[in-house]
């Protein structure tokens, strides 16, 4: 059996809040894979076609820059920035323009950094 990435777990203070943010951001449903344990929340499923995101309550606050982050492809970078803000996230003010596209560094409601990316040669991901 080949190794397969099935999910990413993010430490946080409020799993339900982050699950709601990421569910809306990715258009992926919140699932009950961790039962009714309020210390956990999950977006997507380990049985799905994309890696799930799991949010785990931890007592300590985020401290400093996380050395791994998510990249989220958007159709329009400015519309993506507005969507993040409307969902409770924020823009760090960092924008990078490259030959292949634009990257903006964002934060979710608890301050975890992630990037939204608009590629100029966007690949159609429809089934």
Give a brief outline of the structure.
The protein is 17% helix and 35% strand. With 127 residues, it is an alpha/beta fold.
Key features?
127 residues, alpha/beta, 4-stranded mixed sheet, 2 helices, 17% helix, 35% strand
Describe the 3D structure.
- Strand 2 (30-31) and strand 3 form a beta hairpin.
- The protein has two helices and eight strands.
- The protein is 17% helix and 35% strand.
- With 127 residues, the protein is α/β, with parallel strands linked by helices.
- Strands 1-4-3-2 form a four-stranded mixed beta sheet, covered by helices on one side. A four-stranded mixed beta sheet has the order 5-8-7-6, with helices on one face.
- The longest helix has 12 residues, at 15-26.
Task: Draw up the topology in text.
Layout: E1 7-12, H1 15-26, E2 30-31, E3 40-43, E4 52-57, E5 70-73, H2 77-86, E6 90-98, E7 101-107, E8 113-119
Parallel strand pairs: 1-4, 5-8
Antiparallel strand pairs: 2-3, 3-4, 6-7, 7-8
Basic shape: globular
The chain-level structural class is: alpha/beta
Number of strands: 8
Distance between the termini: 25 Å
Strand content: 35-45%
H-E string: EHEEEEHEEE
Largest sheet report: 4 strands, mixed
